[in-house]
Design brief:
Layout lengths: L10 H14 L17 H14 L12 H13 L4 H22 L8 H16 L4 H16 L8 E5 L2 E7 L17 H10 L3 E6 L2 E6 L1 H16 L1
Antiparallel strand pairs: 1-2, 2-4, 3-4
Helix pairs in contact: 1-2, 2-3, 5-8, 6-7
Amino acid sequence: MRRRSRTAPSAEVIAGTRNLIAMRTSQYTEGGLRVDFDLLDEGEQVELVRLAAEANEDGWNPARLGKRARRLEALIEKGAQAPDVFENARAAEEIRALTAEAHRAAVRRPIRRGDEERGLLAEIAEHLARGWLDADHSGLLLLVLAAIQTGHGFAPRSRVEATVDGAVYVIDAGYGLAGDRDPEGRLAGWRALLDHLEVNQWLAVSKLGPQWSIGLGSRTVRALQQGKTKAKAA
């Protein structure tokens, strides 16, 4: 059995550090990375306890350690017998980000800046002025248009897909349209708002179980085309 010196971390400190690391690394493996301190020498144990405590100040943020963050990772990997787990995770995240960006870039943008954009905004403004749309309706409409235009979904399990009829915002109806972009629940009645926009042909909605596809309605398409036509005639 390894003889412990007076400077070695106590069993309680080791147990606390092991549990902290497991909790903070749960995204890498189920139950987190479990460090076996017996795989580290005494100096490494002391260093790991100190670095983990510093990283955990004000929440787990290894970046606060600067260059020492890689040392923390190396000690965790050694004790957990999980070589390169952090580097592999970063590489996988980079690949996911690049794939998502490539997908967004591939989706055709339905609204061209300039005349089409002005024509659509003019149509929305007229309907607001006449009381045919209110702030909630126009807010939800603009949220959907922003998703389709940028290729970025705003709710969990949402995405923008290209179809033969143009881009559509695909959502899981159980999660709604806005996700954490609506923290105060102002769009709690989004289903009724969406129905209104569909009936008035601002948006076109296709429902297949919980998966709903939302595209541009005929009124929106017409407003875009009229903006371009008026600009040519001017």
